[in-house]
Write a structure and sequence with these properties.
Two copies of one chain form a homodimer. Chain A is of the alpha/beta class. Chain A contains twelve helices and 25 strands.
């Protein structure tokens, strides 16, 4: 007698969930992959969409297409609203509940405004394509309004861009905004010049990139400064409105603020009635299972997993991918084993030809690091066409400083009416 | 004594307005180009964005970038709300009024629902990038919902796509939707198969492409039929809702309707207090000036210009371009002359390897026509990068049937809640 075919339900088609599904390709299971969006998003390049370097379709691919040839997967576009652990069922916003034998929760993280939820509307973060096009619209509209503004104070405020958070995302955003506003568009406007615009990067801690070694953080600081970014360290945000940001007792008039300061896990802990760390991440066993529920595994940004150094693993793509593969393996083999993270290196890029990479023993910075970063990111992009396209596009924009995706789409009229 | 430098104001940066601005590059004038959007849009390919073949940035370029090196142009992002003919000033929604010596009105056309303005929300048309991504969202979401729908009647309705209007846009949309829903995605879904989906093309007149010769229209009809499109001729739309379309006394349950049936000119006639034809187009003199106002010219879809055959010129890009160039020439030389349209050919494409072209004496159809159409469209695309990119992308999607831009973005949650 063969045992009955198991039904594996995976919630979330980010790096973790997708890796889990793909790793189960040859396993004797039926898989249902549920996501609230129809596309897998290559989040590390989202800041390029926000700063008009790439188009949304360059960094996103339909989940169905990616898994087209994997016959044991069914993809469902729906929003999960809860998990019934006793009945082993996932509840959906639109469709019928779905039963599972094994469940992998890979729902990622969302922004955390540290209790100031009203900041969200003034300082969008970067998690989805709609977030990125919203930031792009905000930045490009500020330039447009500055071009026709005659009051020098208002113009100065329109040309002040504030990025909050000095981690990799904040550093990348600040560098890219500086290049966009100070260099790429400089010949396109008649009234504003590159020297008018100001990009501030605000970090509450004592230095940038606190997950990197100190020398690389210092190099990153020098590199963003050279691009024209003003870095404010050890400064806390006190207030954000659509006209100003209050930082360390100083009011900075500005219209474009981007949030890259904090994330919290999705509400998975509540669905699972599970213990969570202060960032909302579910506390898991060393084999990624939920305590008391060997049939449930939690991976990626949704899980709080303590690494060999005693610290929680960072919320980056490689952790999610490896955990997805690990969860799949323990399902396929039926033998849960402890997860161990293999850190292949930590990267952050600054502007169009600088990056810092921490390989542990070896540290790299400058142009060589940037080239390595480019190669790695193009390589890991999903789908051959995107790789080719993004390669061509980057080469082109590197050679010309052109920002090809400088489109203002969406509710322009509303933003337009919002006079300074 | 030199005469004072004239100030030319151009409203609209479509094919007409942009051509006028570019043709005045060497003229001794100052130009202000006003548009409500920051990008020039290559409208003939908008249906490709709506059917996920191209990304918005492939067919749109920032107006500022296009005119970057033309020192005598200033670009303003603003919405025109009126024209004060006596004071020779243009009134803006946000900015100060702008005076002019010469005015070129090139504001294009918008959809006309023949008095049924409530149809607009159920049957979006194709004029802007936001229109196109809205149609894309609608079509892709219908497929997603059909995949998880168990009621066969509702599934059938979700997989029924209706295109209203048998002109070039309608034919192109119907062909592209048929390829998307019946071929490109056929391997991506588990429950729905290509045979489930149905594309209807509804035309009130007796045949498709009524601006083309009869033999070409017949070829177009055969070509769309081969792609699986059902063509309903001589059928009028009686009602449109979010659940059905009433056509010629029959109720067709469906969730995705695209409007390609009628346009009307922008409100320019009202601004100018000018006489207009029933489609709202301003009646102009043979030199494109407004009767009684030699300082005002109206061009493109905004103007009703009677051609040599006694009929109004069609609302296509070549007419707008040539009129823009003509208007510029009469300003530059100071000598108004009658405008004559040089028709270089009329094109429509059907699916991924068919087209019909009417050169007057010569008529072309099939694959050769399609290749010519591709070449012409890539050639006329604004900006070198876009040409290269779109070329690569088309070649790729031609070889693989891949639809790379299959992203559902925007207010998914809302559409998601709209249960059948």
């Amino acid at each position: 007698m063969t045992r009955p075919r198991q039904h594996v339900v995976i919630i979330g088609a980010g790096f973790g969930g997708l890796a889990a599904a793909q790793s189960l390709a040859r396993a004797d299971v039926d898989i249902t992959l549920i996501d609230g969006r129809n596309h897998h998003l290559f989040q590390p390049l989202l800041y390029q969409v926000a700063t008009a370097g790439l188009s949304p379709a360059d960094i996103a691919a339909p989940i169905r297409s990616i898994l087209r040839n994997q016959a044991n997967v069914r993809v469902i576009l729906d929003t999960v609203v809860g998990v019934d652990r006793a009945a082993r069922r996932v509840r959906l916003a639109d469709g019928q509940p779905i039963g599972y034998d094994r469940l992998i929760v890979a729902t990622g993280a969302q922004h955390s405004y540290f209790g100031n939820s009203d900041w969200a509307s003034h300082a969008p973060g970067l998690k989805t394509i709609d977030d990125a096009t919203a930031v792009r619209r905000k930045v490009l509209l500020a330039l447009e309004r500055a071009e026709s503004e005659t009051d020098p104070d208002i113009r100065h405020a329109l040309l002040t861009f504030v990025v909050i958070g000095g981690g990799p995302t904040g550093v990348e955003m600040a560098g890219a905004i500086a290049e966009l506003t100070r260099r790429s568009v400089s010949q396109d406007f008649r009234s504003i010049t590159p020297h008018c615009s100001r990009v501030l990067l605000v970090e509450a801690g004592p230095r940038l990139l606190n997950s990197f070694p100190e020398p690389l953080a210092a190099k990153a600081l020098a590199a963003v400064a050279e691009l024209g970014v003003t870095v404010l360290l050890g400064k806390k945000i006190e207030a954000i409105s659509d006209r100003f940001v209050d930082v360390g007792g100083i009011r900075i008039p500005c219209h474009s603020v981007v949030w890259a300061a904090g994330v919290q896990a999705s509400p998975a802990a509540a669905w699972l009635e599970a213990a969570a760390d202060p960032a909302g991440r579910v506390l898991v066993n060393d084999d990624l299972t939920l305590p008391g529920h060997p049939e449930i595994q939690v991976i990626g940004d949704t899980a709080a997993f303590i690494g060999t150094d005693g610290k929680s693993l960072p919320g980056v793509a490689p952790v999610a991918k490896q955990q997805g593969q690990h969860a799949a393996r323990s399902i396929a083999t039926g033998r849960p084993t402890p997860f161990r993270y293999r850190n292949h290196g930590n990267l952050a890029t600054i502007g169009r030809h600088r990056a810092v990479i921490d390989f542990g023993r070896v540290q790299l910075s400058g142009v060589l690091a940037w080239l390595l970063w480019c190669t790695a990111h193009i390589y890991f992009l999903v789908g051959f066409r995107n790789r080719l396209d993004v390669g061509v596009r980057w080469l082109w924009s590197y050679l010309t400083f052109e920002r090809s995706a400088r489109l203002i789409t969406g509710p322009t009229t509303k933003l337009h009416g919002e006079q300074p």
